[in-house]
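Q: I'm building a small set of examples for a reading group on sequence design. Run inverse folding on the following structure and report the sequence directly after it, with nothing in between.
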């Protein structure tokens, strides 16, 4: 098996790519294999030995020999290869160097041992590979770099113990990187490919050379140099090298666009590498680097500007954020930086960004940069950035409003609202809202941004924005003026900020918190324009202030106020406010209010009105804050028993049960179980009822004596709800059935559960049957992999029997069942095709029963239905066509039988008709002649006043053929051969008529002309008609001359002259017809000479 694998791999490598070199290698391999015995064919070493001998003995086909050595050498044992190294180096060294021989040298270098690496031959081989890395030939360079890369990967430990190898590499870099030509470029390629593998000292030395020579290098190599440097800098380069390189890069200003792209990437990577070693040192170079990049933003190239903008954002995010937090005195003491007197590192950094505000830069290029810069600012560093933020706001009119909002919003994320409002204080006193510069003077523009992006604290809101809440007194619903609209807009953002505020433990001790709550209580009126906004704000705030004891009295006041509003008009926000306040209010007050509202409902249960329903809504909101005790539980259950059968309030009673059930132990839920089981259900309350049943299934049923009892009691209701009009009810019913199926699956009772659902198919109601089919579809969909195939087949047979019911509801459910199977057909092809055929037959039957069934098919499966209908129609057409053909054949057979019986009568009738045809018939007005009738079968009419009849098709065809034969016999051929003579039959001219020029070119002449021009397109301008050019007598073989055929005339040529040649326009073309004939003369002479 090893031999076959080796040979198979070798042949596969050679046949993988079709080339002359690989074809020669295959031929050579087969010849070598024939010279080896069976044992030698199993050994790759035998092949190498034969190839080395061939390399010594012959100079032909050396490329194919080296190709096979390159392919076989990796399969040879390493011990054998090391013995063959001298012979291989000697013989392959004599061959002209190419990528194959270089590949063999690379394999020898890789397979050599640690001791061999010290030998002079291996050192020469390593030098050879290094020299080829700067070769002019691209293939040799790639092969050499690839070989050295593999060599350093596999021989890393051995190379460390052979310092001479690395010294040769160091010397190579020193000598070639200093060259101002392509050698430096190729050496950089080698350095970039080996930067992960070579020792750090070699990498540092190479970098020093690049730093010293980079300004002297040709600018056309800049793109490649910068990209190679970026790869080298991704390693852990020291701070000294990165700093020197950065200094050199800052002095270079490339002009080409490609060089500028690479320059930006290189200087960014250089600065990031420097920041890993010394963040303070990198921060000192950040301003100059950003200023250099800013100049590139002024270019007209959009891609370059976008690239530069992204690189600036990267530096600001990685280094700029740390720059803002550096302590200047510490940086000067540790790094001993020589900074200019212009300012600290932060000031220089911020001054560089401030330069971007000049009119030279487009807002589209700098707003993203400022957004990233603002995102790096926090409360600690905001003091350094105040001036640039003010400058940005001062230039607000330059930026589009949307972009200004997004950019300033990044500042609101990290900086607190208090710092921003101290920098831009609100000034509403003495400012007219109708002035054009109202936003700039009052700084109200910041409210909109804070309401959208800030995450303020409640204390900050109370300290800075609480005075603005007094504007609630100015807000009015009744025809507000323009000034009032501006005030309402300001107030809206203030309340939005209050809603987003976060309360802390310190918030409860704030002096203004009570004032703010009292103020909102005064304006909780339905007619107020901000009524709903105030409710939402209060709900959010009190959800955070639940644990504050000092706010219990306020919560009590809120509940009493909101309860009165509920009695006036039910509102979702009002009820939600009551629910939130009930957690913050005193527990005794909440329990008392809870029982009081229940007593009101019980007292008015015989006559429930809207006010009583509102009381029930309050009960539903307050019950969530109740701590359920045994006494309170009994009180709630008795209340539910009294009210559950009242239709108008039944839905809310089920919602009430769903709220109190999770608050007690499951042993208490048996009362709810019996209550729900005995209660009647209205269609409007079915959704809430199923929520209660779902809770019972989760909590009660595990403790029941028999789980089967629960299923038997609630299964009919679940089956009916599976096709309910309310989608939420359907979802709950599906979830309940799925939960039951999952639990019974663990008990191996799933088949019995499905059989229980099948009992619904025997119901008298068609709707119940349809519901049962839909439930079975759901169970098969969820548990298809757990059901047996025989069980599914039996179910399908029973379901298909329901098609006899011819009911629309049943049909819809069966369509659902079909849809299910179309989703479960991901099986093998045979089973899938079989199921598809069954489904198509089912759909065809359904389409016959219900012509309008297309509207009931799901849209994603409409193609399957249409395909089934199409196949049915095609089959129906084929069947009708076959029936018609049978009837036609039967009629034809009967007609033939009748014709045979009436042959004698028909003969006499034909004779009489011929006599009538011989006499000229006078034409009458509007009547066709007998000739017209004879030519047109549709007009054929029996003159004995009989009905229309048609002749037999075969008989009529024979008549047409006879007429054509008669025409052909009367027409004389143009050229005849009689007694060895050629006779030309021309048309006779009629006396007294001039011969037309068109008549000369008859149909036969045109046919002959086309025959000639088909063979030679040059005769298209021939004037005379060439009837015979002599080509018909030409020999079919290579011999020249003409051939005489027995029974035919001797070879001749005939040209019919055309009078058109007398015209001057065609005079020059008259001789072209004779060129076809005279061109045969040379062939004829050859034939004469041959006979002699």
């Amino acid at each position: 098996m090893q031999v076959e694998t080796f040979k198979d791999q070798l042949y596969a490598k050679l046949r993988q790519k079709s080339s002359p070199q690989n074809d020669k290698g295959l031929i050579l391999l087969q010849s070598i294999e024939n010279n080896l015995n069976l044992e030698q064919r199993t050994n790759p070493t035998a092949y190498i030995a034969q190839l080395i001998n061939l390399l010594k003995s012959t100079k032909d086909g050396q490329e194919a020999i080296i190709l096979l050595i390159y392919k076989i050498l990796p399969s040879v044992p390493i011990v054998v290869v090391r013995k063959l190294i001298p012979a291989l180096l000697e013989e392959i060294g004599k061959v002209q160097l190419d990528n194959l021989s270089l590949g063999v040298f690379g394999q020898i270098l890789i397979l050599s041992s640690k001791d061999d690496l010290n030998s002079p031959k291996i050192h020469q081989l390593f030098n050879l590979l290094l020299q080829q890395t700067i070769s002019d030939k691209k293939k040799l360079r790639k092969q050499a770099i690839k070989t050295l890369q593999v060599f350093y990967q596999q021989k890393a430990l051995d190379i460390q113990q052979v310092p001479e190898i690395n010294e040769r590499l160091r010397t190579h870099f020193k000598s070639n990187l200093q060259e101002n030509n392509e050698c430096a470029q190729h050496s950089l390629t080698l350095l970039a490919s080996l930067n992960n593998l070579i020792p750090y000292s070699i990498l540092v030395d190479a970098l020093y050379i690049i730093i010293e020579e980079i300004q002297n290098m040709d600018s056309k190599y800049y793109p490649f140099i910068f990209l190679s440097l970026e790869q080298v800098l991704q390693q852990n380069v020291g701070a000294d090298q990165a700093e020197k390189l950065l200094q050199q890069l800052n002095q270079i200003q490339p002009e080409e666009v490609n060089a500028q792209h690479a320059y930006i990437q290189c200087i960014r990577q250089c600065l990031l590498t420097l920041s890993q070693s010394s963040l303070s040192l990198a921060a000192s170079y950040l301003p100059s680097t950003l200023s250099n990049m800013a100049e590139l933003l002024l270019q007209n190239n959009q891609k370059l500007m976008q690239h530069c903008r992204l690189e600036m954002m990267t530096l600001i995010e990685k280094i700029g954020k740390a720059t803002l937090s550096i302590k200047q005195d510490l940086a000067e003491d540790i790094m001993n930086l020589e900074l200019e007197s212009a300012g600290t590192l932060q000031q220089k950094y911020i001054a560089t960004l401030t330069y971007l505000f000049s009119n030279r830069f487009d807002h589209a290029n700098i707003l993203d940069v400022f957004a990233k810069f603002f995102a790096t600012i926090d409360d600690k560093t905001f003091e350094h950035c105040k001036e640039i933020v003010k400058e940005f706001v001062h230039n607000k009119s330059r930026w589009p409003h949307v972009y200004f909002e997004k950019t300033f919003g990044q500042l609101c994320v990290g900086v607190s609202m208090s710092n921003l409002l101290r920098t831009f204080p609100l000034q509403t006193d003495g400012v007219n809202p109708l002035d054009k510069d109202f936003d700039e003077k009052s700084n109200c523009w910041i409210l909109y941004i804070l309401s959208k992006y800030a995450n303020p604290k409640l204390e900050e809101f109370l300290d800075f924005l609480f005075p603005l809440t007094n504007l609630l007194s100015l807000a009015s619903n009744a025809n507000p003026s323009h000034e009032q609209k501006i005030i309402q807009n300001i107030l809206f953002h203030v309340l939005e900020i209050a809603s987003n505020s976060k309360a802390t433990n310190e918030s409860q001790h704030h002096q203004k918190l009570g004032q703010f709550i009292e103020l909102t209580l005064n304006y909780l009126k339905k007619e107020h324009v901000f009524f709903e906004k105030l409710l939402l704000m209060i709900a959010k705030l009190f959800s955070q202030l639940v644990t504050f004891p000092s706010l219990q009295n306020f919560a009590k006041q809120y509940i009493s106020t909101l309860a009165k509003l509920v009695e006036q008009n039910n509102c979702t926000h009002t009820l939600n406010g009551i629910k939130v306040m009930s957690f913050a209010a005193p527990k005794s007050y909440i329990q008392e209010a809870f029982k009081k509202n229940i007593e009101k409902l019980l007292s008015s249960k015989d006559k429930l009105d809207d006010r009583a329903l509102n009381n029930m809504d309050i009960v539903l909101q307050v019950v969530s804050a109740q701590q359920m005790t045994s006494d309170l539980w009994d009180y709630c259950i008795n209340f539910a028993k009294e009210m559950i059968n009242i239709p108008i309030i039944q839905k809310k009673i089920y919602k009430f049960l769903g709220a109190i059930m999770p608050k007690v132990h499951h042993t208490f839920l048996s009362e709810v179980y019996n209550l729900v089981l005995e209660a009647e259900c209205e269609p409007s309350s079915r959704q809430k009822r199923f929520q209660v049943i779902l809770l019972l299934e989760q909590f009660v049923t595990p403790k029941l004596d028999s789980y089967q009892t629960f299923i038997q009691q609630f299964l009919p209701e679940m089956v009916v709800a599976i096709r309910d009009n309310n989608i939420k009810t359907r979802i709950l019913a599906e979830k309940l059935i799925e939960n039951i199926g999952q639990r019974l699956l663990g008990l191996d009772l799933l088949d019995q559960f499905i059989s229980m659902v099948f009992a619904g198919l025997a119901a008298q109601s068609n709707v119940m049957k349809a519901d049962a089919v839909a439930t079975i579809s759901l169970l098969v969909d969820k548990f298809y992999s757990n059901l047996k195939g025989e069980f599914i087949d039996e179910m399908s047979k029973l379901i298909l029997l329901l098609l006899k019911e011819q009911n629309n509801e049943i049909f819809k459910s069966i369509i659902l069942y079909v849809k299910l199977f179309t989703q479960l057909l991901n099986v093998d092809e045979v089973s899938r095709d079989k199921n598809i055929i069954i489904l198509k037959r089912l759909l065809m039957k359904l389409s016959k029963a219900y012509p309008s069934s297309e509207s009931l098919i799901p849209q994603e499966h409409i193609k399957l239905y249409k395909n089934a209908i199409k196949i049915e129609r095609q089959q129906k057409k084929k069947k009708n066509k076959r029936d018609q053909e049978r009837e036609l054949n039967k009629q034809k057979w009967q007609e033939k039988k009748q014709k045979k019986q009436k042959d004698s009568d028909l003969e006499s009738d034909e004779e009489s008709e011929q006599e009538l045809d011989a006499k000229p018939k006078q034409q009458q007005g509007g009547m066709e002649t007998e000739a017209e009738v004879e030519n047109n079968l549709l007009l054929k009419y029996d003159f004995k006043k009989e009905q229309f009849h048609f002749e037999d098709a075969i008989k009529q065809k024979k008549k047409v053929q006879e007429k054509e034969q008669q025409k052909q016999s009367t027409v004389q051929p143009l050229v005849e051969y009689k007694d060895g003579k050629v006779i030309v039959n021309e048309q006779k001219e009629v006396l007294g008529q001039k011969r037309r020029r068109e008549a000369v070119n008859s149909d036969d002449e045109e046919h002959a002309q086309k025959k000639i021009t088909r063979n030679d397109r040059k005769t298209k301008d021939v004037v005379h008609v060439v009837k015979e050019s002599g080509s018909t007598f030409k020999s079919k073989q290579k011999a020249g001359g003409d051939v005489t055929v027995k029974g035919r005339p001797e070879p001749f040529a005939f040209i019919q002259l055309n009078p058109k040649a007398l015209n001057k326009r065609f005079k020059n073309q008259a001789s072209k017809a004779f060129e076809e004939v005279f061109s045969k003369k040379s062939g004829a002479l050859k034939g004469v000479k041959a006979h002699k």
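The domain at 700-824 is CATH 1.25.40 (Serine Threonine Protein Phosphatase 5, Tetratricopeptide repeat).
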